[in-house]
């Protein structure tokens, strides 16, 4: 323990020191033992110590400053300020922009293949190239088929075998989701719509949905992908990380909750519906922290594929009772319902679309050369 040799220093007793620092006596003694606070014997009481007030004030200020920095860092991980630099997507003023262009505009003009090239800064994207179709259990839901294909590709890449390139892997994801055994050479939205629906609107709407789902800044799955990429994980492994995170009940898994919630609500009368809507939390498929005025992705899709009348009545009721608007999860579920797509198609569209952004983010993170490694904090 450092001793204060000069009694002219301004000192305080242990009670005063603990009060200034808002700590227990045990913590005070720990600071002294670590040399952070100097101590001296009390000349008036041989059984008591005095502590250097300058050290105490310096430690108090440092703790306050560190706490502020920790609070800022912690808040950035919970819908806070941007915490990573990226040129891919920006969400501002209630709109989502891919490399400076509104995603809703790109959804009207670009195919999904063109969008993959755009996000990855490729000026020219060749026409679709046929790829081999992996053997999967077509009795499984589309998302599980996608997961199996990416898992196998990640294993191949990990074992240094000749792994399929990531753009072709996205195409394989779409092929197995569509339940196809042979690549027809069509564009992805054409393959999916041809296999899934007889509705003439399906191709165009699926194309737009894929583009709108392609990226969304540092959402949970994309952040997980960037963490994996920062450690040197292969692009195939990064896609697998993205799919795993997307499957969570608070991310892509919301679509299943949204669908079941609407089914339950339709079976109730208006009074029961109002009572259910008033409960916390906000119903699945509504609200988005980054879009207080409404999710523009959902607005675009629902304007061209409106919800059925019974659903629309519930949507209006939620808007009136809770002042929230539909988000992309609900819009995808409406597409699945109205176009009579296979069960789970909403999540499959989300996964295939978002894979374009995952690839772009994994490449960008890898090029930065930085390892993402936050620190943990403990309340004191």
What topology emerges from the helices and strands here?
Blueprint (H helix, E strand, L loop, with lengths): L10 E2 L1 H8 L3 H9 L5 E4 L2 E8 H24 L12 E4 L2 E4 L2 E2 H7 L2 H8 L22 H17 L7 H13 L9 H9 L5 H12 L6 H11 L4 H12 L7 H13 L3 H9 L17 H9 L4 H14 L5 H11 L6 H24 L12
Antiparallel strand pairs: 1-3, 2-3, 4-5, 5-6
Helix pairs in contact: 4-9, 5-17, 6-7, 6-11, 7-8, 7-17, 8-9, 9-17, 10-11, 10-17, 11-17, 12-16, 13-15, 14-16, 16-17
Summarize the structure.
This protein has 380 residues and is mostly helical.
Write up what this structure looks like.
There is one protein chain. This protein has 380 residues and is mainly alpha-helical. The protein is built from 17 helices and six strands. The longest helix has 24 residues. The N terminus is likely disordered.
């Amino acid at each position: 323990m450092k001793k204060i040799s000069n009694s002219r220093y301004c000192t305080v007793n242990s009670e005063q020191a603990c009060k200034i620092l808002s700590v227990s006596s045990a913590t005070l003694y720990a600071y002294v033992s670590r040399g952070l606070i100097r101590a001296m014997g009390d000349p008036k009481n041989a059984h008591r110590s005095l502590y250097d007030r300058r050290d105490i004030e310096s430690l108090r200020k440092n703790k306050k400053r560190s706490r502020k920095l920790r609070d800022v860092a912690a808040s950035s991980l919970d819908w806070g300020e941007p915490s990573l630099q990226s040129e891919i997507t920006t969400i501002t003023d209630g709109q989502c922009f891919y490399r400076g262009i509104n995603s809703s505009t790109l959804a009207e003009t670009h195919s999904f293949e063109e969008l993959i090239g755009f996000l990855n800064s490729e000026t020219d994207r060749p026409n679709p190239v046929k790829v081999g179709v992996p053997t999967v259990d077509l009795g499984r839901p589309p998302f599980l088929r996608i997961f199996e294909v990416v898992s196998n590709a990640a294993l191949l890449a990990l074992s240094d075998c000749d792994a399929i390139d990531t753009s072709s892997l996205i195409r394989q994801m779409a092929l197995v989701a569509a339940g196809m055994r042979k690549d027809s050479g069509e564009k992805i939205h054409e393959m999916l719509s041809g296999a899934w629906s007889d509705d003439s609107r399906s191709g165009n709407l699926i194309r737009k949905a894929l583009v709108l789902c392609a990226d969304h800044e540092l959402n949970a799955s994309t952040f997980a992908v960037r963490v994996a990429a920062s450690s040197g994980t292969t692009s195939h492994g990064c896609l697998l990380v993205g799919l795993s995170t997307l499957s969570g009940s608070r991310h892509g898994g919301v679509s299943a909750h949204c669908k079941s919630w609407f089914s339950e609500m339709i079976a109730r009368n208006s009074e029961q519906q109002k009572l259910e809507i008033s409960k916390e939390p906000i119903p699945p498929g509504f609200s988005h922290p980054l879009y207080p005025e409404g999710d523009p992705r959902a607005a675009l899709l629902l304007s061209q594929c409106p919800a059925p009348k019974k659903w629309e009545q519930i949507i209006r009721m939620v808007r009136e009772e809770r002042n929230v608007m539909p988000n992309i999860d609900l819009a995808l579920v409406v597409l699945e319902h109205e176009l009579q797509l296979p069960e789970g198609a909403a999540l499959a569209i989300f996964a295939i679309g978002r894979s374009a952004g995952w690839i772009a983010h994994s490449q960008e993170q890898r090029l930065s050369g930085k390892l993402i490694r936050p620190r943990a904090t403990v309340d004191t």
